[in-house]
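batch_manifest entry 22 of 60
target: PKD domain-containing protein
source organism: Nocardiopsis metallicus
requested by: lab member K.T.
priority: normal
notes from requester: please return tokens only, no post-processing; we will run our own comparison against the previous entry in this batch. if the run fails, retry once and flag.
--- input ---
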Amino acid sequence: MLPLPAPEIGLAPNPPSTALVGSPVWLWVDNQTWTAASRTATAGSISVTATATPDRVEWSMGDGSSVTCYNAGRPYTRGTSSSCTHTYVSSSRSGPYTITATVYWDISWSGGGASGGQTLSQSSTASLGVREAQAIVQ
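--- output ---
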């Protein structure tokens, strides 16, 4: 069996903190989620090797929008940037948004004179409240 880990979601701001409308939310999955895995099974004289390689993370942001990242993203560090973010345009008035991260894995196998492949996925969810902040400019 080739176990595929469910993604461990990272967000900044980190729940239970809330995000602000108009400010980017950083998205990432744990680096252990973003590591290729390989296993070999042997029966008699035949061995088959399967390899799973993470391809992308699709983020469903709970507000009807989605973000696709072709890497694990990166944890928030002051003064840096990330290509895996989402900016909410409205608050989560009726409760926090449910965010779903789905990691898609490319699976390839070979052995015994045959080979093949397919795509599998694993998902996890998190909740994040989003509010608006008002400012007076003079």
